[in-house]
Amino acid sequence: MDKRELRRIIGEKKRALSAREIEARSAILADRLLETAAYRQARSLYAYLAFNQEVRTAPIIERAWADGKRVAVPKVVGGEMRFIWLEDFRGFVESVFGILEPASDGPVADDAAALVLMPGLAFDRQGRRVGYGGGYYDRFLAAEPSHPTVALCYGFQMLDAIETEAHDVRVDIVLSDQISDQPLFL
Q: Could you give the C-alpha distances from 132 to 4, 149, 150, in angstroms and in order?
């Protein structure tokens, strides 16, 4: 199946989720993330701000702050994604994609070992990922490859195998909300 068809099918499944389902599944995934060594060892978290039916990250961000971690979220500036340190949930603007991002262009996050939460539409057990098509995370991680990465996904987003291209960066850990799935460490 090509990426366009995969994006369509997974998008339909995500749109079928109720707000209650999204919140419940997100809570399961937050708990799973917090149990990982990757989260416990990280001094900083580079998180995305949930858009549409994505796994909710606000509770994870709040917990990271409570755990004494620094948090940054992405902002696209001139076609390049960078992470901006976040002190609270104020001062956001809507990007051209409709995604919230910091109104400020700085301060730019500078922790080369920060744990990066990876959004995406589909994942497989080898850590391959199909994103939304912009390539922002692939380019960011190609430039800063030392970051550990984690993807949080709904069970229907986990596939047996995904075809990717040479520039597609794999995810280190994929966590699903399905009981039978265990963290994947590559």
A: 10, 17, 16
User: Within 10 Å of residue 161's Cβ, how many Cβ atoms?
Assistant: 9
Which tokens go with 2? 């090509």
- pLDDT (tens digit per residue) in 103-126: 888 899 999 999 999 999 999 989
DSSP 51-82: -TTSPP-HHHHHHHHHTT-EEEEEEEETTEEE
User: Is 181 part of any domain?
Assistant: no
* CATH number, domain containing residue 128: 3.40.50.10420
Residue 1: CB partners within 8 Å, gap ≥ 6? 9
| Single pTM value for the model | 0.90
pLDDT at 184 > cutoff 50:
no
Q: Please say whether the beta carbons of 176 and 154 come within 8 A.
A: yes
Cα separation of 111 and 13, whole Å? Answer: 35
Q: How far lies 17's CA from each of 24, 119, 154, 166, in Å? A: 11, 17, 10, 32
Q: How far is CA 80 from the centre of its chain?
A: 17
The DSSP call for residue 169 is P
Reported as a single tens digit per residue, the pLDDT across 80-102 is: 899 999 998 888 887 777 788 88
**Number of compact structural domains in the chain:** 1
Residue 123 lies in a domain: yes
